[in-house]
Amino acid sequence: MKKIFYCGFGAGFVLGIAVALSMDLLLGKTLGSGWSEAVANDLNRALKSSYSPDHPLVIILSFGMIGIVGLMGGLMGGGFSYVIGKLFGTLQRHIPKK
Length: 98
Description:
Layout lengths: L1 H30 L3 H13 L8 H39 L4
Helix pairs in contact: 1-3, 2-3
């Protein structure tokens, strides 16, 4: 079951990163801002500073947020693949052998 979880985790992580980056690339300017602008805005509000979206701290935190999205996608993918693996294992045990 570990192998199934790890495969699902990897697929979910990659898909989570892909969705986060595609949302930034495709919808970033349409919605008004991308990841770096949103992180810069939150930092400026929280710390009462004036970081630009190109500041290294903002870029590092943007990568961190995208990593968190990937981690959440990986956990969901791993959990889903674990449940599906258990389901198919249970079904396989109940199928009569010829």
